[in-house]
Design goal:
mainly alpha; three-stranded antiparallel sheet
């Protein structure tokens, strides 16, 4: 496995945000611009990403892009606590944008995690 690039991570995040937006649209219309629908959409995003990452090691978008969230530096599965912390920090945006020399954001450093690209075998 190799560390995931920024492009794959952003695309996976976009897929997860689209899923959260359409799920939240079942309650609030997509065109709503008030604060309550936006916060609801953000809450759906946090729950979806944290739950799927806790259960399967990757959110829906990460799974589509062939990524997996693992512990740093030993590359083992993360417990739900650090995954929830990581997801909340992603929702705050700034920790996800500020990265270190290894390409890990502040959210990954706080949760002691890394996003790895899963290499798939060819038949």
């Amino acid at each position: 496995m190799e560390q995931a690039g920024l492009g794959r991570r952003v695309l996976a995040l976009s897929i997860d945000w689209a899923i959260a937006s359409f799920t939240a649209a079942l309650v609030y219309p997509l065109q709503s611009s008030a604060l309550a629908p936006s916060l609801f959409r953000l809450g759906v995003f946090v729950i979806e990403v944290a739950l799927l990452t806790s259960l399967g090691g990757a959110s829906a978008g990460q799974r589509v892009m062939g990524l997996r969230v693992l512990s740093w530096p030993d590359n083992l599965f993360l417990r739900p606590g650090p995954i929830l912390l990581r997801t909340i920090l992603i929702a705050l945006v700034i920790p996800a944008v500020v990265t270190d020399n290894d390409g890990r954001g502040l959210h990954d450093r706080a949760a002691k995690s890394v996003v790895m690209r899963v290499k798939q075998k060819r038949a």
